[in-house]
Amino acid sequence: MSFNQFYEEFIQFQLRERSGEALRRLQEGHGHAEKMFLEVIWWPAVGKFEFLHAEYPISDFKDGVRYLDFAYMRGTHLVCIEIDGYKAHHTDLNRWQFADQLTRQNHLVLDGWKILRFSYDEIKEKPRRCQQLILQMMGSWFGEGNSGPALTLEEREILRIAAQSYAPLLPKTVSEQLHISRNHAGKLLRRLVQLEKLMPSSGTHRIRSYKLPHKINHS
Fold first, then answer.
1. Beta strands in the chain (DSSP E)
2. 77 in the same domain as 116
3. Total structural domains in the chain?
4. Which ranges carry the DUF559 domain (predicted)?
5. What are the residues facing 118 on neighbouring strands?
6. Is the pLDDT at 217 greater than 60, yes or no?
7. d(CA 130, CA 139)
């Protein structure tokens, strides 16, 4: 399934779980910037939407309700992810509105939330850096990727391609899908074999194709 298919399932599931103002907020508040974050940052880095909630309502310190752009709630960890546009936060706010936002964030921290903030421009212009921050979050707070050398984004993408393919994985396929040279693709594949993330599918002295250790080829 493509990102758009998973994304549609993600949104439809949450729409079914909402009602009233929370439903309206999800329908109207989740827009272009939030979808772009999921498509170019979250999806390439994580590959699933489990534990993630869009426009998540929480009790406000003023006895009202506020909405987080995204809430990632997993185990005992509560992570608030906010997407900030420059204009909205530096032009349209007066001093007291700005102070109010800081107070709201402080109350989130006191309530046990960890907070990650991304600017719209950073998501658009520097997605790799944003992806790396999400991967660091997963490793630091959830222990993912700590049982050995950290995988690069390219290596994680190779494993995703291998998981989605019925045929053995070829260096040519990796080169074409990641837009990298055949030589670089070969180096990445050999490193994944050394890390026991992949294993040879054909060839011994010179590996011609690769597969996941637990996967049966259907060729």
1. 52-59, 65-74, 77-84, 113-119, 199-202, 209-211
2. yes
3. 2
4. 68-137
5. 83
6. no
7. 14
